[in-house]
Amino acid sequence: MKLFESLAIAIRSLLANKLRSALTMLGIIIGVGAVIALMSVGRGAQAAVTSTFEQMGSNVIFVQPRNPEAPGMLGISQAFATPSLNLDDAKALADIPSVLGVAPTNENFVEVAFGDESVYVLINGSTPAYQQVHNHTLASGQFISERDVAGRDTVVVLGAKVAEDLFGSDDPVGQKVKIKGRSFTVIGVQEPEGGTFMGFSLDDVAVVPITTFQSRLFTQQTVRGEAAVQSIGVQVSSAGAIDGVTKEIETILRKRHRIDPDEKDDFDVISMEQMMGMLQQVTGIFTIFLGAIAGISLVVGSIGIMNIMLVSVTERTREIGIRKAVGAKRRDILLQFLLEAAMLSLVGGGIGIIGGWLVSKVISLVDIGGMTIHSVVSPDIVILAISVSIFIGLASGIYPAMRAARLNPIDALRYG
Predict the structure, then answer these.
(1) How many of the other CB atoms lie within 10 Å of CB of 255?
(2) SS3 category, 200
């Protein structure tokens, strides 16, 4: 019964000072809303990474050049690597048992133009196996062929968004586009992928024969003077065969590159599962970082609650003395002020959750350069926000409540 009495007194006290209570809750509202919105964006990024890799398949291995002297971390060893792979390396890997397809690939950013329209895209130079290895399908036309690769033909397959931006609803197959001042014939259009990879839309791409890429667009050579390949995608028959194929790849390439037993590899072999794990770890850290930044406003909100509760204790000193004089015990006073602090935090947290959810939905609708971030408000984020708001209310109210409970009733009655 005393709990309900204390709750009623707490509600009356908060309603008696509506503006002050609202301003006190504002810090918690902003803090919880920011936590919900920012962590939802981080979770959305994680979900996008997982979805993209699942779409590309888990039975794909990537071989990339690396700097033997650089740390073996994803991206670092490749960033400072001297080109070491070539087309013959890719052909040698095709003979490994359990390998279904090998797609050597070069990529770069380039402007593709048609008439007065132009777009910047990620252009990939590859072989016919690219379509199978990367699980792409065509909406119209055909993909590049071995004949296109052998003849270094100026043909291109456009991503769905590229075709839409340049040609609208018209069929671009057979039309001519300009790439680095050269005329390319559009022979196919990919089906919409709808995902992103490394922050870039999978529909904002174009594919040309790798020999055309090497000779007509972006020339790059290995230390041995051969046309360089930036990466080699290897599709394996099953996820269980990845370890065996990885060892075969390492053996073949070490032999081809004449690497001595005591020397480090000048290439990296990374499975899709490893890449997904590394990128998920990065996005996970990113999510925690965003949550920590938003948590600063929660700390500010808790300070605001503590400050107002101390002011409330001072203002109601005489009331506390009267309650003690008529029989209220120390724990009753303690409970009353704790309930007031908890209610401020809990109501503010509830409003913050709704606000954060709405903000995250708005973020999902925002188009940034043709890309959208689909935020994910998961139950654990909401539970975390509610738990933190309750904890903050109790933690920030404990000292003012204890101070009120310790007041001497005689001194309290004399106050004011």
Answers:
(1) 10
(2) strand
**Cα(209)–Cα(146) distance, integer angstroms:** 9
Determine the Cα–Cα distance for residues 7 and 336; give it in Å rounded to an integer: 7
Farthest-apart Cα atoms in the chain, separation: 101
> Strand ranges (DSSP E) for 82-116?
85-86, 99-114
Burial of 163 (0-12, 13-18, 19+ CB in 10 A): buried
List, for residues 105-157, the tens digit of each pLDDT value. Answer: 999 999 999 988 899 999 999 999 999 888 888 999 999 999 999 999 999 99
Please give the backbone phi and psi of residue 202, each rounded to the nearest 5 degrees, phi first: -70, -10
**The pTM is what?**
0.63
The per-residue pLDDT for range 59-87, each reduced to its tens digit, is: 888 898 887 666 554 544 454 567 889 99
Distance CA(377)–CA(36), nearest Å, equals: 7
The DSSP code for 215 is I
Name which of 1, 45, 31 is nearest 280 in CA terms: 45
